[in-house]
User: What shape does this take?
Amino acid sequence: MDKDKDKNKNEKKSDKKVWLIIAIIAIILITAGIITFLLLNKNDEKDENTLAYTDLIKEISYGNIEKVEMTVGSTTVKVKIKNEEEEKTAIVPDTESFVTLIQEKVADGNEIELIQNPRSFLAQFASVIVSLLPTIIMVALFVMIFKMQGLGEKGKVYDETERKTQIKFDDVAGLDEEKQEMIEIVDFLKRPEKFAKMGARVPKGVLLYGKPGTGKTLIAKAIAGEANVPFISMSGSEFIEMFAGLGASRVRKLFEKARKLAPCIVFIDEIDAIGSRRTTNSGAESENNQTLNQLLVEMDGFGSEETIIVLAATNRPEMLDKALLRPGRFDRQITIPTPDLKGRLEILKIHSKEKKLSDEINLESIAEDTAGFTGAELANILNEAAIIATINKHDEIENSDIEEAVKKVTVGLEKRTRKYSDKDKRLTAYHEAGHAVVSRYLPTQTDVKEISIIPRGVAGGYTMYKSDDDKYYISKTEMKEKLIALLGGRAAEKLVLDDISTGASNDIEVATGIARDMVTKYGMSDVLGPIDFQGKEPYEIQMFGEDIGDKIGAEVKVLIDEAYKSAIDLLIAHRDKLDLIAETLIKQEKINEVQFNEMFGK
Ligand code: ADP
Ligand code: MG
Ligand code: ZN
Assistant: This one.
């Protein structure tokens, strides 16, 4: 999500240029059109004074025409017919042959006065423009294409993202410890001599690890803002969207620019796009290798006399080429976590500053309910709430607006108009009831907050749970129970309808991911033991045995199979509750926390 946002910013800027060019072309076109129309056809009055071309020819052949007046290039002519007071206007399809016709008549002895007015300057100008239009459009298009690909002026692309930012550390909520590390970098950018005198080797590169939306870009900008130095940014994916060979030259230009602007910050977003492990393959990957090599060359190239700090962000640290992490390159790594309770509260405070919140709103309780949410999601919730409040014609943002916004951000927009067949409705009801009933009997799973079978976003229905406390560690039992809860939907479909649907695909995807992590990352498989298999090259994994891949697969399957069986067993044991909840959902589409607990006699 956040990736798109960053990209949009850059795109918007080059978009502006493109639109400017389009607008200029449009203005030229329209003006030329209007001028041509007005000047060449100014005699074209649509009244009784117009004469059809066939009538004009008739009058000419009868010898009734006294005078013909026309402007060169115009197809509108004025004619004076004998014995008629007023002059008439006619449109001739082809002026040249018309003039020839008149001249022949004159030669035959007809007394026709032929007046050919020269074109006015404006009309000439207009016609020149009109004749040049195709060329102008072609040239403009070429310019646009070249600009968009950054081939135009040297380094043009980077100018768009280079500027001093106004963002300060105060705009970054939470992340207190991380900020502490950043202050050091700001200090270095401000007073490099101080460090040099001490003989300190200053950091060149800092890698920010963290999920999308945790504030990596924000923090990078804040560093530049605090140090009051230019911020030059570029996204890794932009480097590889280029024609072959261009990625490397872009990197070179980026650093050329940075040297000129030093001291400055170079920010490379999504560095995994160029910095993933180098391979020996050809095609796109070797293109990628060239780009990465160039980046390494540049980072090794600038010395202590240039105060450039390269910040890079990624959410896939395991993908990165180890060469990037060597001393003198990105030798500092900072993990940006998803915010804890205090962090969430601070983020909510920052982003509610400009919003009209009702007094009933308690930011603390929103913070409590949003464990696991990123800063971007929290900012988004407040923004959505403001939109929803506006649509609902509330004077201020109310609790109900916030609740709706949370659902919109997490599950998507409610789609009441989407029509369900009765069969689909029953299936969705049982699927969601399956999740809810199963998790009810799993001690580690949080309580159900709401179940709904009103479609929202891409989901047919959803079961919302109360937010978890902030946890640093998750136990194996908890992960296993999470798998059971996830597979509860599919289990209910199988049990009740004796058929299964595609509706469980997301649950299955998430469950498989968790099971894989349990085996390959958290060492939770007794068969494989506490070994990290993730992000390893095949040869590194084979170190543990030729068939290690098979063993990993088998262990993942055991976890999933066990969880699925547990889900089925739980549902068989509590079939009455499953039916009750599903039937209630079919009737009223939603069940809230209170109702749900009542059904279990609480
Ligand atoms: P990332 O680069 O890690 O994907 P961004 O820095 O682009 O995340 O964050 C997106 C938006 O989310 C920011 O512009 C800001 O509005 C909000 N945000 C994220 N983290 C924070 C934070 N710690 N404090 C305040 N706002 C935040
Ligand atoms: Mg970002
Ligand atoms: Zn489900």
